[in-house]
Amino acid sequence: MGEQPGAAAAAPAAAAPAPASAWSPFRHRLFAAMWGAQFVSNVGSWMQTVAAQWLMLTLTSSAAYVALVQTAAGLPVVLFAVLAGTIGDLVDRRRFLLLTQSLMLVAAVALGALAIAGLVTPWVLLALVFAVGTGQALTSPTWQTLQPELVGPAERPQAISLGAVNQNLARAVGPAIGGVILAATNAGTVFLVNAFTFLAVLGVLAAWHSTSRAPDTLPREHVGEAIRAGGRYIAASPALRVILIRAALFIFFASALWALLPLTARSVLHLGSGGYGLLLGSVGIGAVGGAGLLPRLRARLSADVMLTAGSIGMAAVTLVLALAQVAAVDAVALVVGGACWILALSTLNSVYQLSLPRWIKARGMSYYLVVFQGGGAIGSAVMGITAGYAGLRVTLAIAAAGLALGPLAALAWRFQAIPPEELLPAGDWPAPHLAAGTEPAEGTGSAGTGSAGTGSAGTGSAGTGSVSAEPAGPVLVTVDYVARAGQAGELMAALEETRFSRRRTGAISWRAWQDASDENRILEQFVVASWAEHLRQHERVTKRDQDRLDKVRALADPDQPVTVTHWLAPHP
């Protein structure tokens, strides 16, 4: 299925008690089947990684070219993940995953056939690795959000964690198998074996009957609209932005370890392909051991502390690789590195994924993948080029310093815990109605008259004036409040806190105004791109959003009803 950046749990200490076992999701048959198929495919992916990096070393001794193998594998995520995540939120996930896995199978077969034919040059190798990475980019957002949904809510942090266990257990097995096959045959054979492993995922997906989506009361979003909605949500979520910033800081420097490890194995430790595979196996062993400790660590440590420990541990391991020239010492260090790697990745991935409401799961995850894989691709390229000029030791020392200093970001950007129940839908909101004689644009809703509630219960019309054309353009929503005596400042402050909620659910602009002649009268206004998007905005409101809106309403004068008005742009 392609390498996943790992995922696991790092809920804060105040969260619900962790299950007794980190492996409890395996009680669910479908989860176990998908996890097993993913493991087979991930083993093949690591075999391909070993073969591709080693093949590149036989084609050129350039550190930059070797590091660019990882860049070529990660760059497609930057280019295609957002589109892939958006599609995953809109279409049947089973069919979509069948298509993407088939594309990866074809690309892997092409890579193996050309390698056996001796037609691979450094740039051809990079192009074909990029092609396989494209399939991974299309698959990852949907796959990573699908597996946790196969278990109960209490086990979802464990299910996310087992995604990282899967990848890193494959890291322990795949490189060693790949090294043995590579030594006995050639890189092309390894690539073809990897292609065969995609059949395991295709088989499970073919047998899986996905639960049908709930029937949509609104027409399905267009892809472009859905991409913009996802971008607005991430931009208007301070909690998610913090996670993305800290993920970028971590992976930029951590990527040096994996990008330069093959060069370290060959040039410094003088190991062959089998020895390099065993070094990667050490990483996997440490990661599996670390995964078993995650539930207990999660119950005792905050996400900030867990990421700090993982980052500093990775810094120490990278420094050991920069200074030590003994294979056994480096292998032991990499066991520790594997545990620290899964600790950091599990923290970032779970905090992020558990902060997303259901309607934006795959789209939201795609932005994390863009930052994670893009940061790794850029970091690999930068560190590879730096190694070419300054040498391996200096470059690894720079990476170690970056990893050691990275946790200082917590001083400015701390993780924010969002209880999962706060991300549940707020419930049925009263749908806004159109005035009599005003017809909606095709497929956007039904016409009618009546009052509309938009965040605070109130009264108001869904249009004024002589609007008679179809409301195909933007919608301006105004909410008129009258504050309780002496509480205008508190109402304005509470209203200011709702601006992110409005933007996350669909508003493209937001503003609050205070009457110059009556300080207690406050007007909120926001613009939504279309009538259909405004109807979706009602469906996207979470309990967390509703709580903030209720606080605003509590500060309003109960004798002065909150008035909501929807303004439509008239057609010429």
How would you describe the overall organization of this protein?
The chain has 572 residues and is mainly alpha-helical. It is built from 17 helices and 4 strands. The protein has helices at residues 29-59, 63-90, 93-116, 122-146, 156-184, 187-207, 223-235, 238-268, 273-300, 303-323, 327-353, 361-390, 392-405, 488-496, 499-505, 531-540, 543-554, and strands at 475-482, 507-514, 521-528, 563-568. The protein has a 4-stranded antiparallel sheet. A hairpin with a 6-residue loop joins strand 2 (507-514) and strand 3 (521-528). The longest helix has 31 residues, at 29-59. It is elongated and about 85 Å long.
Give a nutshell description of this structure.
The protein is mainly α and 572 residues long. The chain has 17 helices and 4 strands. 63% of the residues lie in helices and 5% in strands.
Features:
572 residues; mainly alpha; four-stranded antiparallel β-sheet; 17 helices; 4 strands
Helix/sheet category: mainly alpha
Strand line-up of the largest beta sheet: 2-3-1-4
Radius of gyration: 26 Å
Mean pLDDT: 81
The profile of the biggest β sheet is: 4 strands, antiparallel
User: N-to-C terminal Cα separation, in Å?
Assistant: 53 Å
**Oligomeric state:** single chain
Tell me the series of helices and strands, N- to C-terminal: HHHHHHHHHHHHHEHHEEHHE
